[in-house]
C-alpha cells in the first residue's frame, strides 16, 4: 500500500515542498517565536519530509531585518504595522512564487500575523482555495475590536476585508470569502470576534463541537462546508496553540482544553487525504517559553504535524 504516491490533485509529481522559514515575531509581544522555524529545521524537518518521498526546497530562512523600519509607531491600535505589513508582503510573494511553480509552500512561523502573507500568496495562485484555520483563537480582530493591538490576532480580518482600511496594508487583496473559511479548535474568542463570526456567517467548530461530535465528524463537517465536492485547493493554517498546552506547551498564548495529540494529527492526515492540500502553515512555536524538555516536545510536535499533513500515515 503506497499512500505516499501522488494522490495530490494539485501538486505535480515529483511532489515538491518548499520550506518558507519565517523568523518573525512583530505580530505579538513575546520574545522567541522568531526562533521557531530555526528549531523546526534543526530538529530535522527537511530530511523527515524527504523520507516521506517529497523533494524538499529550502534555501535558508528569510532575513527580515533588512525590511525592518527604524520608526514604526502604532497606526491606531495596530502594533509594528509597517514591519508586519512588509514582511507579510514578502511572504506573500515567496509563497505565491512557490505555488506558481507547482510546489507546496510549507511556511514555518513565527507568529500568526504571517498568515496575511501566506494566504495572500495561496489565493493569488488558487483564487478558489479554501482556508482551514486550526487555532485556539479566531485571529479575526479588526483595528476596532482588538484589545491587544497585536497583529497575530487579526490576520483574517485583513484577508476578508473587514474593518477599517489602512494604506499600509493596501497590498492585501481582500479576496477570502467568509464561506471559504472554517475553524477547528477555538476556545478563546474575544467578544468582538464572536460578533464578527456571527455577522459574517463564518463556520467554526470550537472544542465544544470536537467534544460533542468527535474529531472525525468535525473534520468531515468542516470540509463539507468549505469544500463540499473536495475539489477546491486547501490552505491549512495550523497554530500549535490549537493543541492542548500539555501537548504543545511552548507557545505564546496557550489556552487549556485544547486538541489532543491525535486530534491535531488527525486533522492534518485528513487534509492530506483529500488530495487538495496546496499550502501549509505551522505557526507560533516559541522555543523560549518552557523548559528544554517541553520545548523539544513542542518542536517535535510541530514537525510531526507537518509530516502528517504531507502524507505520513500510521500504517
Ligand atoms: N495567533 C495567536 N496566537 N493569536 C492570539 C490572539 C489573542 C487575542 N485574541 C488578540 O487578539 O490579541
Ligand atoms: Mn492561537
Ligand atoms: Mn493563531
Structure description:
The protein is an alpha/beta fold and 315 residues long. The chain has 10 helices and 8 strands. The chain has helices at 36-42, 45-51, 81-100, 115-125, 155-160, 191-199, 207-213, 215-226, 261-274, 292-309; strands spanning 16-22, 55-57, 104-109, 130-134, 181-186, 203-206, 234-239, 277-283. It has a single domain (16-310), classed as Arginase, Chain A, CATH 3.40.800.10. The protein has an 8-stranded parallel sheet, sandwiched between helices. The protein is globular and about 50 Å long. It is 35% helix and 14% strand. Arginine is lined by residues 112, 137, 139, 141, 146, 148, 150, 152-153, 190, 239, 241, 253, 284.
Associated small molecules: arginine, manganese (II) ion
The largest pleated sheet is described as:
8 strands, parallel
Widest β-sheet, arrangement of strands = 2-1-3-8-7-4-5-6
Our count of helices gives 10
The helicity comes to: 25-40%
Note poorly predicted spans.
1-5
Give short descriptive properties of this protein.
single chain, 315 residues, alpha/beta, Arginase, Chain A, eight-stranded parallel β-sheet, disordered N terminus, binds arginine, binds manganese (II) ion
What would you say about this model in short?
With 315 residues, the protein is of the alpha/beta class.
Topology:
Blueprint: E1 16-22, H1 36-42, H2 45-51, E2 55-57, H3 81-100, E3 104-109, H4 115-125, E4 130-134, H5 155-160, E5 181-186, H6 191-199, E6 203-206, H7 207-213, H8 215-226, E7 234-239, H9 261-274, E8 277-283, H10 292-309
Parallel strand pairs: 1-2, 1-3, 3-8, 4-5, 4-7, 5-6, 7-8
Helix pairs in contact: 3-4, 7-8, 9-10
Bound molecules: arginine and manganese (II) ion (MN) (2 copies).
Amino acid at each position: 500500500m503506497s499512500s505516499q504516491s501522488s494522490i495530490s490533485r494539485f501538486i505535480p509529481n515529483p511532489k515538491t515542498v518548499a520550506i518558507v522559514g519565517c523568523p518573525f515575531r512583530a505580530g505579538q509581544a513575546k520574545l522567541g517565536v522568531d526562533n521557531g522555524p530555526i528549531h523546526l529545521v534543526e530538529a530535522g524537518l527537511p530530511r523527515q519530509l524527504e523520507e516521506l518521498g517529497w523533494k524538499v526546497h529550502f534555501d535558508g530562512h528569510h532575513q527580515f531585518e533588512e525590511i525592518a523600519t527604524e520608526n514604526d509607531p502604532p497606526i491606531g491600535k495596530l502594533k509594528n504595522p509597517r514591519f508586519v505589513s512588509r514582511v507579510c508582503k514578502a511572504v506573500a510573494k515567496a509563497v505565491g512564487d512557490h505555488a506558481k511553480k507547482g510546489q507546496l509552500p510549507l511556511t514555518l512561523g513565527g507568529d500568526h500575523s504571517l498568515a496575511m502573507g501566506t494566504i495572500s500568496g495561496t489565493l493569488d495562485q488558487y483564487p478558489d482555495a479554501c482556508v482551514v484555520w486550526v487555532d485556539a483563537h479566531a485571529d479575526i480582530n479588526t483595528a476596532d475590536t482588538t484589545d491587544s493591538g497585536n497583529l497575530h490576532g487579526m490576520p483574517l480580518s485583513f484577508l476578508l476585508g473587514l474593518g477599517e482600511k489602512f494604506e499600509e496594508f493596501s497590498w492585501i487583496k481582500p479576496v477570502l470569502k467568509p464561506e471559504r473559511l472554517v475553524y477547528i479548535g477555538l476556545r478563546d474568542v474575544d467578544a468582538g470576534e464572536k460578533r464578527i463570526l456571527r455577522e459574517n456567517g463564518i463556520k467554526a467548530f470550537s472544542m465544544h463541537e470536537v467534544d460533542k461530535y468527535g474529531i472525525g465528524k468535525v473534520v468531515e463537517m468542516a470540509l463539507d462546508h468549505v469544500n463540499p465536492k473536495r475539489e477546491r485547493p486547501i490552505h491549512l493554517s495550523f497554530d500549535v496553540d490549537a493543541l492542548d498546552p500539555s501537548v504543545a506547551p511552548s507557545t505564546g498564548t496557550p489556552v487549556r482544553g485544547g486538541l489532543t495529540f491525535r486530534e491535531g494529527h488527525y486533522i492534518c492526515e485528513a487534509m492530506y487525504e483529500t488530495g487538495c492540500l496546496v499550502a501549509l502553515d505551522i505557526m507560533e512555536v516559541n522555543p523560549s517559553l518552557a523548559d528544554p524538555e517541553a520545548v523539544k516536545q513542542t518542536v517535535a510536535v510541530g514537525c510531526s504535524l507537518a509530516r502528517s499533513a504531507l502524507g505520513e500515515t500510521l500504517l
